[in-house]
Amino acid sequence: MDSRAKIEITVPGIAASQGIAYGQIFVYVQSDVEVPSYEVAQEKRIDEVARFDRALIATRQQISKIKHEVEKNIGPEEAAIFDAHLMVLEDEALIGETIREFEATGRNIETCFQRVSSRYVQAFSEIDDAYLRERAGDLRDVAQRVLNNLLGQVETALNRLADQRVVVATDISPSASASLDRSAALGLVLDSGSKTSHAVIVARSMKIPCVVGVRNLTSRVANGDWAIVDGYDGVVIVNPSESTLFRYGKIQEQKKSFEARLLEANRQPAITQDGVEVTLMANIERAEEVANVRTYFAQGIGLYRTEFLFLNSARMPTEQEQFLDYKSVAEAMAPLPVVIRTLDLGGDKPMTGKTDLFPKENNPFMGFRAIRFCLEHQDIFKEQLRAILRASAFGKVKIMYPMISGVEELARANAVLAECREELKARGVAFDPAMEVGTMIEIPSAAATADLLAEQCAFFSIGTNDLIQYLLAIDRVNDRIAHLYEPTHPAIIRTLRSVVDEAHRRGLPVSVCGEMAGDPVFAPLLLGLGVDILSMSPGWVPQVKYLVRAMKMADARALAAEALRLSSPREIYARCDAFYRARMRID
Q: Which of 11, 73, 330, 430 could lock onto 236 through a cystine, CB 3.0 to 4.6 A?
């Protein structure tokens, strides 16, 4: 029977890469390799280690080849994904632990490597931060390649699809996603994953519509089923009816026209219809992302997360290495501002191979992380502060501290910064003596004492992801209670207003750098509450800018005033959504 005659099924997910695709499904299965376990004779153990070295070399060559092909066919930014993979192969802790495991147990090297790499993958998988949690995929992908080379197995690739297909998978490793055939992969659908996964990054770069988080869809569809992938609304429609196909044909025409309007508006200043200028900035994790910031005309970098430099190495980066990285970003963005956040590492973001610095914790959300870690390990903290100070001589650099809970922590951090300034002065090293210092507001105690914190810093940056989590006592990565994570909860709205009021009362600007800032539905509410700057992933700037240009600030303030009077998160969201749709001309 023709699968198109089957009953239509609509499966909700998360919109990850915009666009609409329609075609037959190909279910991609990427299974783990089976690793035999046996004892290696004493006289063959030197050869076993040599075999491990050859597998590492072969893996390095394969990944370098993939990187070259991606750079040629897609672009240098996407190819940079595989730098992290190459760094895994240089990880002294991972390799060293494997050798020690082999020497201690005498089991074959595949077994030892699988045990050690699995421990590392598990550690990263338990990290709270979604972006950093996705880095477990880097480790898993590299480990799979090493094991394939040790066992002489060939990896299944996605570059030989028989015809144009919608690829449906549980998950796709970075190297497998890089092998996607652009001419054959119509759309990508993943049971798991997030907006920050490498597969999604590649899909966006190739302009392949993508929806993630469609739980267990792989077990509900078969090769040859037909599907629509709606990368705008995050929906997959299996076996669509003729009326649905007709409706989506019209939607696709409207979306193309809408995207053209966004790109045109993106070249214009972010000024509301009643003449209020709004500052839109970008969040980045790596220096290479500066090109995207420029492409989307963001007005600076509102959040540079510096953990990437640390998490992709088995050792602490030196002051000089950090300085060169921060300097490159400052120079590339000058004269626009760059806000560098100090290390938010520890607790739920352990460094590979650094168990002495980051012991396992029962409650990492409330644990030894960020500014708490830095104040205890001031040698590490001071190296980063000096690197940031030195970079400030090459652009408009600002600094901010994460996870500040009160004035004492802020005062201690500023005291360490003052020591670093004196050290650089003594060395005759240039830096900007007027570099602004800010703090993130992401802990309820910080929000409650915003008036006191405002006396010791130059600006606030609200991290809504953690602030919502802590205020509502919701683990935002726990699927069972994710529905309770509500940005429009009255407690959130009132807290945001309170922080903004206290900051403005003392002349401090306030930015929001959490996910709320980049969501066009919430952006008007934040601006109406008085937020001065919205900082988001670069790709969201055009849509938020278009909305800003289509609205009046007076209307946004009225929306915020109404939201403050309402008691239901759903009602507040409905008002925000209606505001957004009316100005974006969405029915």
A: 11
**Annotation says 489 is catalytic:** no
3-state secondary structure of 26: strand
- Residues 12, 103, single domain; the answer is no
Task: Based on the fold, state whether residues 546 and 449 are members of the same structural domain.
Answer: yes
Total residues found in the chain within this entry: 587
Owning domain of residue 173: 3-30+157-241
**pLDDT, tens digit, for every residue of 538-552?**
878 998 999 999 999
Residue of 112, 374, 457, 513 marked catalytic: 513
Half-sphere exposure of 529 (CA within 13 A, CB side): 32
Q: Cα(75)–Cα(567) distance, rounded to whole angstroms? A: 48
Q: Which of 151, 175, 201 is the last residue of a domain?
A: 151
Q: Model confidence over 159-180: pLDDT tens digits?
A: 556 578 899 988 876 656 666 7
**Given phi > 0 = left and psi -120 to 50 = alpha, else beta, which region is 192?**
beta
Neighbouring residues of 495: CB distance < 8 A, sequence distance ≥ 6: 444, 447, 467, 471
Q: Is the same domain home to 526 and 561?
A: yes
Looking at the fold, whether 304 and 441 belong to one and the same domain comes out as: yes
Catalytic residue among 198, 210, 420, 576: 198
If asked whether residues 472 and 505 sit together in one domain, one would say yes
Residue 198 designated active-site? yes
Residue 349 three-state SS = strand
Residue 467 sits in the same domain as residue 527: yes
User: Do 228 and 276 reside in the same domain of the chain?
Assistant: no
Rg of the chain (C-alpha set): 25
Which residues 6+ apart lie within 8 Å of 582 measured at CB? none
125: which residues sit within 8 A by CB, 6+ positions away? 133, 136
Helix (H) or strand (E) holding 398, with range, is strand 396-401
Domain end residue (candidates: 151, 186, 212): 151
